[in-house]
Amino acid sequence: MAASSVGFTNLADVAGTPGDTKDTSLPMRLSTPSKSTNDRHKKKGHGTSRRLLPLDLSAFDMTQKSKRIFQKKDLAEAVRRVNMPIMLLQRDPPPSVSEVPESDAAAAGNKDVAILEDGVNINARKYNERRRVAVAKEKELLHLLDEFKTMQLETETLDKIHNQESTGAKEIQRLNAEIDECMLSMEEKATP
């Protein structure tokens, strides 16, 4: 048997199954390569080892013994294998991504830019239309305000005339009083 320079057991060099007794110098654990002097994975302070179970017990088969993972790349591969089917079921790719071939990344970028430009143009049209409507309503409002001020002035003038508070009404009252005095003086002269 040949061992690698790092100190891991090369599983390709191991012949037979764990039950074979052809070579007794080989360790019987063939499922996971391990370092011969691996002290960094020992627990300190706790006599019993506790394992965390996944929250979704349906995704974990309790009868199947899982192999221990000592390398980061093995852990990443295991996480990728476990999470990949779940991610594919939960998230569908957007239609624009699924229609674009993977080899044509430049076309996908151009399509995204075209979609973005279309969105900007649509929003600009909406803005311009709403601004035009707002300007028209503002003109109508100013016209109605002018009419309101005119009617308000007319109403105030008519109220003053009705209440005889205007200068014209006062002049009319003065003239009526003079007419009454003249009529009285004429009646006195007519009756001797």
Automatic annotation (TrEMBL):
Q: Biased-composition ranges for Basic residues? A: 40-49
Domain of life, source organism: Eukaryota
Region (Disordered) residue spans: 1-52
Q: Name the chain's protein.
A: Uncharacterized protein
* Organism (species): Aphanomyces astaci
